[in-house]
Design brief:
This protein is α/β, with parallel strands linked by helices. The chain folds into two domains: about 140 residues, P-loop containing nucleotide triphosphate hydrolases (Rossmann fold, 3-Layer(aba) Sandwich); about 55 residues, no CATH class. About 35% of the residues lie in helices and about 25% in strands. The strands form two sheets. Strands 6-7-8-3-9-10 form a six-stranded mixed sheet, with helices on both faces. α6 links the parallel β7 and β8. α4 packs across α5. It is globular, with a radius of gyration of 17 Å. It starts with a strand and ends in a 7-residue tail after the last strand.
Length: about 230
């Protein structure tokens, strides 16, 4: 489903953010990406979303080399990938259901489909009763669940969760992780970038560790530190 083939990203007059990275993720996998700040995790995410282009190498997603996409194709690529950010990125003046619906509005889904799908994902994340509220009235955990609902509204085959528990207390963080596991169990491929050692060590999923822009460890049933 996803392949990085000898991918390097070097910034002008700056460091090499990724160095000769080769990585393959199969449909339905749950993969943790770990590493210290500056290891290359953010660059990896930006390359997947075509916010950046690699200096060399190929990135194959669903059979297409996204590094060769024309500018007009990039918005469609991003709509096909669900993204959950640490800082939620919700529109403050929109209700919960409006925030979730936006992901479907931009792909011009029908109003009937939007209504049905938004109701379904809000039920999944346990926020049906908060549908008419603004994000500012919600707790951090609830806002993250809204962001998660938005990420899966279009039923993407692939979700990137970028530090989704970073701003949450441990109990709330586990609630988000359990939702990610449920979504993954239904067949969605999950790539979770995280510093959450306890979560990684407890779940024993595949762990890809970055250091200095290189993949230094790729283990099934891995832990945070090798």
């Amino acid at each position: 489903m996803l392949e990085f083939r000898k991918v390097t990203k070097a910034y002008p007059n700056g460091p090499i953010a990724l160095n000769d990275v080769t990585l393959s993720v199969s449909q339905g996998e749950f993969v943790f990406v770990v590493g210290q700040s500056g290891a290359g995790k953010t660059t990896l995410t930006k390359l997947l979303l075509r916010e950046e282009k690699p200096t060399q190498g190929q990135i194959i997603l669903n059979g297409r080399d996204i590094t060769k996409m024309r500018a007009g194709e990039i918005p469609y690529l991003r709509r096909s990938i669900g993204v959950v950010f640490q800082d939620f990125r919700l529109m403050p003046n929109w209700t919960v259901e409006e925030n979730v619906a936006f992901a479907m509005v931009v792909v011009e889904a029908s109003p009937r489909l939007i209504h049905r799908r938004v109701a379904k994902v809000l039920e999944l994340v346990g926020l049906t009763h908060k549908a008419k509220q603004l994000p500012g009235k919600l707790s951090g955990g609830e806002q993250q669940r809204v962001a998660l609902a938005r990420a899966i509204a279009n039923q993407p085959a692939f979700v990137i969760a970028d530090e989704p528990t970073g701003n949450l207390d441990p109990e709330t963080a586990w609630g988000i992780v359990k939702l990610l596991l449920e979504i993954n169990a239904a067949g969605t491929t999950m790539l979770m970038v995280t510093h959450a050692k306890q979560i990684v060590d407890s779940l024993r999923k595949r762990v890809v560790a970055l250091e200095g822009g290189c993949v230094v460890r790729d283990e099934e049933r891995g832990v945070y530190h090798g």
